[in-house]
Amino acid sequence: MAALNLVFSAFLLTSHAHAQIAGNNGGTDLNVRIPVSAGWFAFTDEGWQETVTGVAAARTGAELYPVGAGKTPEDGVLRLYGRVMFDWRIGAGNQETYKALCNVVGIQPQILARLNITRQHSVCLGAGPLWALELYTFSPKYDDKKTSTRRGTAVAFTAGYGFKTKGRLSLFAELEYDWFITDGFPDVFSPSAGITVAL
After folding, report:
1. Is 70 left (phi over 0), alpha (psi -120 to 50) or beta?
2. 164, CA 20 to 30 Å: which among 11, 48, 79, 172?
3. Cα 97–chain centre separation
4. Which of the given ranges, 1-10, 87-96, 146-155, has the highest pLDDT on average?
5. Which range among 66-75, 157-166, 168-177 shows the weakest confidence by mean pLDDT?
6. At a CB cut-off of 8 Å and minimum separation 6, what does 78 contact?
7. pTM of the predicted model, to two decimals?
8. pLDDT per residue as tens digits for the range 110-145
9. Partner residues linked to 148 by β-bridges
10. Rounded CA separation 114/4 (Å)
11. How far apart are CA 184 and CA 168, in angstroms?
12. CA 175 to CA 6: how far, in whole Å?
């Protein structure tokens, strides 16, 4: 909870700073965008790589941009913004070892910096905590099916590229690295691509 409070305190300070900057132009707006993406993931630990293969990953959530009145996130050079993402990942066990199915759901608040190269092209960097819940079902050879659940905490680092299309849609690609601080959880590397819809 301390990490979550730190992230959102930083976002509130960012919003206040933007509001002060935009104050002379008639106030500030909160621009909300909904990202949806799909990709895959891989464990960085060799032992986990031999046991479970990442099959797919999906994410959605909300991005919150504090911007000047009448402006958009594409205006200006550097934009700081916050977002909350909900993750789902599924992995399958190596059939030569044992049958397994790994489902992981997570929630991830982040603070990001967006650099607008042009009004169409942008890059971003961000970080924030990730809380994950894992449901692991496996069938060892000559034994009954077993199920286990566990919770983990990580620091998630994100780097991305965005392309603004006409209208309210944007395309993006991201790379995420989850550095787990909970014992027993391997670090995760996850590329993804998707669309963002401006509300």
Report:
1. left
2. 11
3. 31
4. 146-155
5. 66-75
6. 113, 114, 115, 116
7. 0.80
8. 999 999 999 999 999 999 999 999 998 877 665 677
9. 136
10. 21
11. 42
12. 23
Distance CA 43, CA 53 (A): 8
Q: Are 75 and 81 in contact (CB under 8 A)?
A: no
CA dist 177 → 78, 79, 142, 163, 186 (Å): 23, 22, 36, 22, 11
User: Read out DSSP for the chain?
Assistant: -HHHHHHHHHHHHHHHHHHHHHGGGT-EEEEEEEEEEEE--EESSHHHHHHEEEEEEEEEEEEEEEEETT--TTSSSEEEEEEEEEEEEEEEE-TTT-EEEEEEEEEEEEEEEEEESSSSEEEEEEEEEEEEEEEEEEE-TTS--EEEEEEEEEEEEEEEEEEE-STTEEEEEEEEEEEE-STTPPPEEEEEEEEEEE-
